[in-house]
Task: structure prediction
Amino acid sequence: MTRRVLITGGAGFVGSHLCDHYLSEGAEVVALDNEVTGRAQNLAHLAENPRFRFVRADVVAGIPDDVGHVDLILHMASLASPPFYKRFQVETLEVGSLGTQRCLELAAKTGARVVFASTSEVYGDPSVSPQPESYWGNVNPVGPRSMYDESKRYGEALLTAFRATRGVNTGIVRIFNTYGPRMRWDDGRVVTSFLVQVIKGEPLTLHGSGQQTRSFCYIADLVDGITRFAATDHAGPVNLGNPDNEMTIRALGERVCQIFGVPESFGPPLPRQDENDPQQRRPDTTLAKTLLDWVPKTSLEFGLRATHAYLKGELGS
Ligand code: UDP
Result:
């Protein structure tokens, strides 16, 4: 029997790539999205596919009945970039809490597995590095990122409770910084900002010292990790991110300039994005490697080139 997969946030960056993956495997896919940050254009190429359906709806308001039976639910809907989640604070809290509950209730009825897109932000501004799943984090519950961090922490707690008390097959993935085609050019994240600045011939914007670190994972690797994990019955949490390319934001800027052959040019330093901006971030992916035989394979250069080409097309330049 054909599997039916529901992907909330299906018109978003990660969600739309997951739609492609499951369709390529022969599954039926329902993408649910309220298009606050997701974009129907990410799914336009699937319009003629008879196994694909797009439902414009907000998961917080409830999953429409006519979505029907599903075997797997991937709850990817969220405001994922700091400028967006700071703009839509209550909506961010709702989609991680109520939205997650809607998915779990449907799963309790249908027997579906639910995979929840959690985040490296559950570790807050971490005091250990790299971050293993066993680290409880350093999150400010009333800080400038709390709407995102706490919505995801609450979502994790909700999955844990539904598994314990209602026997739902739940799985938590903690996604670290990921980039690639279909990111919005205006989402304000560092990879898109730097690439758009290179395309427009503008200086790169560094927030704070530029000494804060991130590790960057390419979308194809993330999709590979999520789908491997979704195929298990494991509860997680499991970290998915690139453990091998932690770098400072300044070093990322330098690398971007070098790859695209433009002179290194940073604008005047901007204030730190916020006082809880994590100063270091690198996933410990030992569990993903052991459990899923998963390691990211895409080089930063390949990934940046693919993303640059996509953004150039988006900007019409
Ligand atoms: N950042 C920057 N310049 C930009 C955009 C972001 O220096 O144009 C910094 C930001 O302050 C943060 C890091 O890059 O320290 C990563 O930011 P991003 O928004 O990509 O993701 P986060 O990991 O904070 O969710």
Summary: Residues 106 and 261 are 51 Å apart (CA to CA).
